């Protein structure tokens, strides 16, 4: 039989990163040593105390369903964490999800329907576009590549892009894929436009804990933003817990009620013992500080190595990515880099910004050195 698929899924393209991973897998199967700078996850193990808390929770029998929004202790601990960031939310205004990705999916599904306009700041993380398309929304994209990926110099462009027809704006600072942390003036500019045009804003703060010498402001703390901001965060990046699948969102209670229906009818809840491990994670500081310090050293190393080859990049202040300027045909550049130099990166066009490749420096210093050296030897720098 021939199945008929919905517009909802057929209008979404498979991720452009898949071609690169497929090539990497193929080369590795042939015995090649691929330096993988394409991954979006920390290369550290989950801190031991968090692993132990997960095991203890299993031993203690925390293996059944939980309340759909997540166990109260965790939502209260998240509320305390958000309060430290200056955001006021009760446990009832928080939903714990299997990863921040699920949080974003539920928010977009709850807010966006056919024809609604959603504004993205490019380059933007790959899944925003897919989520908006699946919900039937229309994308308007604001390019930040002429301003070193900073938003403040591009506020005029954002102003020109938004209108009373804009339903939702997605802000991700620190950013994947650029590592940019937006200034307070930039966020105030967002606030002014959001208030003027009555726009809901998603503040994706999944990299908030990974910054180098800057303190990113949470958008929802700005005057006028509390009732129009949905703050998303999770445990994957800061605590190196990508495979545990734990994230959350906090927002106005009516959104939580609506999105909560989606949540309960789809995933039911995040995994019970994982939520208990999350409680331990929120108490973990030293291991996070150590990982962040290592990322900062690696960032500096990559920038120095690129500088030796006269390559200038916008210096990231957070997350563990940077954008390398490459040929206009970035897909071909990335395919060539993996075939010739056996170095995997992600084409900028996957994030809406051709002409760049995203490098993830969540790799050891040795591998980073090896990767840059190979790119230079094969003429890719
Ligand atoms: C910007 C951004 N938001 C959200 C996520 C989702 O993270 P997770 O679902 O692992 O919590 C990611 C993961 O790569 C990301 O880069």
Give an overview of the whole structure:
There is one protein chain. The chain is α/β, with parallel strands linked by helices and 381 residues long. It has two domains: 7-46 and 286-377, Aspartate Aminotransferase, domain 1 (Alpha-Beta Complex); 64-281, Type I PLP-dependent aspartate aminotransferase-like (Major domain) (Aspartate Aminotransferase, domain 2), CATH 3.40.640.10. The chain contains 13 helices and twelve strands. The chain has helices at 7-10, 17-29, 48-59, 72-84, 100-111, 126-135, 155-161, 184-197, 253-266, 272-281, 286-308, 330-340, 365-377; strands at residues 35-36, 94-97, 117-122, 138-143, 166-172, 200-204, 229-234, 247-250, 321-325, 343-344, 346-347, 356-360. The protein has a seven-stranded mixed beta sheet, with helices on both faces. Helix 2 (17-29) runs parallel beside helix 12 (330-340) and helix 5 packs across helix 9. The chain is globular, with a radius of gyration of 21 Å. Bound molecules: pyridoxal-5'-phosphate. Pyridoxal-5'-phosphate binds at residues 40, 99-101, 125, 172, 176, 204, 206, 234, 236, 242, 247. One of its GO terms (biological process) is amino acid metabolic process. Residues 33-375 form the Aminotransferase class I/classII large domain. Keywords: Aminotransferase, Pyridoxal phosphate, Transferase.
